[in-house]
Amino acid sequence: MKFNKKLLAVILFGGLATSMCLASGMEEKVQASEEKVEAYVLNTDRELYKSVSKDVKLPKKVIFRDDQKSTGILGETTYGIKNTNFMDNKAGDYVATSLSESSEGTKFYTHRYENDDASQRVTFNVIGTETNIDTTDYDTKIVRLSNGIEATYAEGDAAQVLAFNNPKDNLYYALIGEKDVGKFTTEELIEIANSIE
């Protein structure tokens, strides 16, 4: 499946907008022009992301590093599942989550994290099919994850993206990092991607 720059923009900016579709235990109705969008209300986040594919995996750890240069303090906030049981994924570990479906039946799952003051955000996206995105106008580099999968790091002014197709489950994963001050480094996003299990 070949996508263009428009989809990249949708992932970069639409992922943030749609991430508010479902928030822990709250029902929201979403409407879109020209396309049917369904709102899902499920008992747990696990049911939501497993409806894309039984093989969907979430990051075990999402780390936000705060470099306060004026005080010389380096702070760190860690979010994520505290043990290996995915059933223990708690609402406090993420800000919002959503599931949408295209008219062709492809499911898009979004899981959003942010630090305490929301000055740093990571949006985790899973698309239920192998995907290629045109990153022609972005600074990109190819990196390798710890499991050997090749990923593309794309850097823009507003966000940084680490994206890859997982050949084991035919799912497309994209981590979108945003900081009010500074940028997510390749290493920061790779660290999150390497914790996807």
- Distance N terminus to C terminus? 25 Å
- Integer-rounded radius of gyration: 16 Å
Widest sheet, order of strands: 3-4-5-9-8-7-6
Helix content: 10-25%
Please report the total strand number as a whole number: 9
User: Which regions are unreliable across 5 or more consecutive residues at pLDDT < 50?
Assistant: 1-36, 69-75, 77-92
Shape: globular
Order of helices and strands: HHEEEEEEEEEH
Overall mean pLDDT:
71
Number of domains: 1
Beta-strand level of the residues, as a percent range? 25-35%
Number of discrete helical segments: 3
Report on the biggest sheet.
7 strands, antiparallel
**Class computed from helices, strands and strand pairing:** alpha+beta
What does this structure look like?
This is DUF4367 domain-containing protein. InterPro entries: DUF4367 (IPR025377). Keywords: Signal. This protein has 197 residues and is of the alpha+beta class. It has one domain (5-157, 165-194). Helices cover 15% and strands 32% of the residues. It contains three helices and nine strands, in the order H-H-E-E-E-E-E-E-E-E-E-H.
List keywords for this structure.
197 residues; 3 helices; two-stranded antiparallel ribbon; 9 strands; alpha+beta; signal; DUF4367; 7-stranded antiparallel beta sheet; DUF4367 domain-containing protein; disordered N terminus; globular
